[in-house]
Write a structure and sequence with these properties.
single chain; about 400 residues; Rossmann fold; 18 helices
Length: about 400
């Protein structure tokens, strides 16, 4: 079997590429987009076409959905396989989603429920995974100095989204009406009190959507789209990102009032005076040391991931770290809360659980071990890609 892996430098790509090769698949890689982030759809299509015409490919694969690849594969009658690892993904609104060549895997059940009716035979649900063997190699080589350097009562690794928040850029330009700002502020405050349910999309008024869309000249406007993209992207890309920034800042500030909190980020942390900002860490070499050495690892899922489990959850558990995460409706599908990880549904509950587990070390370590064992047994990339290939085999034969 030969495939083309179209890469754009997602952190998942090396692990997935490695597993494909372990399975005996000949993998050709196209890395044009890794080195040039301004690749046009035409350039993408031309590169993929060249590969398809030169090689006898079983399918073309990518992380996340590229409409140009889908259209190319549809024209040249080659299956296109992609695995979505982000939310939102605006490209899923392209009419290319309807192509019969597609075999699209979405990690979030809410995302799957939203998009699968567009092409029900070609869109599947598949949760994310982790590379336990990669993390084991790093963790087994950790020194006492590593544990001292990366250890903490509470650690959080991730962006604060302050530098990625398009809504904030509109506020800075004073582009939005006071009415819109007040409505969005109220919506954010209400959503912050509710976990496991995202009611922002259905709560937006046409007036608010129009104000945000018209205020941003760079608002995503696909020329080949279906559905109400304005509502979806306003809710997820604008308000969802602002919500993530507010939630992370408040959560970290609240915890830092009671505990020593380490933050690993490249974002501006000036609004977190009591948090120990350690700067960014390398995902593949330093991050697993943080997860292993920290007493408690915190995950705060950005709200545009409505029900699914973010990659951070799988990686923390795959490193043998103890995890407290905000509640997501899919967590009970894979883990036993209180036995393999912990969850919270309010700031008060989070503070109480952090306090409890910092003073119950044996219980905390037992939960971390159970979480690691569950992931190592059922949720590695080898297992997940085997599930994907089983679905693809059934699709190809149907």
């Amino acid at each position: 079997m030969e495939i083309l892996f179209y890469r754009y430098n997602s952190i998942c790509e090396p692990d997935i590429l490695h597993v494909f090769q372990l399975f005996g698949i000949t993998v050709h890689t196209e890395e044009l987009e890794m080195h040039n982030k301004r690749v046009t759809p035409r350039e993408c299509a031309e590169k993929v076409s060249q590969w398809i015409l030169q090689k006898h490919l079983t399918f073309v694969f990518s992380i996340n959905f590229f409409p140009a690849i889908s259209y190319t594969c549809e024209k040249l009658k080659v299956p296109y396989v992609c695995w979505s690892v982000d939310s939102p993904v605006p490209e899923l609104f392209s009419n290319a989603l309807k192509n019969s060549c597609n075999h699209i895997f979405l990690f979030d059940k809410a995302q799957y429920a939203f998009f699968s009716p567009v092409n029900p035979d070609c869109i599947h649900y598949l949760p994310l995974a982790t590379n336990v063997k990669r993390w084991e190699k790093i963790i087994l080589d950790m020194t006492e100095e590593d544990y001292q350097a990366y250890g903490a009562d509470v650690s959080f690794v991730g962006s604060l989204y302050t530098e990625k928040c398009r809504y904030d850029s509109l506020l800075q330009k004073k582009a939005l009406s006071p009415r819109t700002q007040g409505y969005v502020d109220g919506l954010i405050e209400a959503q912050l009190k509710v976990f496991g349910c995202n009611f922002i999309p259905e709560s937006l008024t046409e007036e608010v959507i129009r104000d945000i869309v018209e205020s941003d000249p760079d608002f995503y406007k696909g020329i080949d789209t279906y559905g109400d993209t304005d509502r979806y992207l306003t809710a997820h890309q604008y308000i969802g990102m602002k919500l993530a920034a507010v939630e992370r800042e408040r959560t970290l500030n609240r915890l830092s009032e009671h505990f020593d909190v380490n933050l690993y980020t490249r974002s501006d942390a000036s609004a977190l005076p009591k948090v120990h900002c350690r700067g960014g860490v390398s995902t593949l070499t330093e991050m697993p040391k943080v997860f292993q050495a920290s007493r408690i690892n915190l995950n705060i899922t950005m709200r545009p991931i409505e029900s699914g489990l973010s990659l951070r959850i799988w990686d923390i558990l795959g490193c043998g770290g103890f995890l407290i995460t905000n509640y997501q409706t899919e967590i009970p599908d894979y883990f036993e809360i209180g036995k393999e990880l912990e969850t919270y549904e309010s700031m008060d509950e989070l503070v109480e659980k952090v306090q409890y587990y910092l003073t119950h070390e044996e219980e905390r370590m037992e939960i971390a071990i159970c979480g690691y064992e569950k992931v190592a047994k059922f949720h590695t990339y080898e297992i997940r890609l085997s599930q994907m290939l089983k679905i693809l085999t059934d699709d190809f034969l149907s």
